[in-house]
C-alpha cells in the first residue's frame, strides 16, 4: 500500500510504501535534509516537525525520545526513525536556528 508524504516548505508530495522512513523517502526523492551520522540515531540532525498525520507514524522509541529531549513534545521526530503508515505532512528543519 502506498501513502502520501508531503514535505514543507517545498510543498512536494511523494508516494511511499508502508514502513518507509521519512529519511528514506526524502533521499529517494531528492529532498535536501541535514544529516551527519547516516541515520544511526547518533547526531539528531534528521529532525522534522510533524504538521499532519502524527498518528500515521511508528511509535516513538525511548532512544528517539531521549535524543530529541523536550522537542519530542513539540511534534519533532527523527526522520531516520519515524516509519510511515498513512498520509503525513512534515516540515523539514534545515536551519540550525531550529536546534
UniProtKB/TrEMBL annotation:
One GO MF term: metal ion binding
Co-factor(s): [2Fe-2S] cluster
UniProt xrefs under CDD domains: fer2
Keyword ATP-binding attributed: no
Domain of life: Bacteria
UniProt-listed GO biological process terms: P450-containing electron transport chain
InterPro entries hit by this protein: 2Fe-2S_ferredoxin-like_sf (IPR036010), 2Fe-2S_ferredoxin-type (IPR001041), Adrenodoxin-like (IPR001055), Beta-grasp_dom_sf (IPR012675)
All copies of domain 2Fe-2S ferredoxin-type, residue ranges: 3-96
Record family assignment: Belongs to the adrenodoxin/putidaredoxin family.
Protein name according to UniProt: 2Fe-2S iron-sulfur cluster binding domain-containing protein
The organism of origin for this protein: Calorimonas adulescens
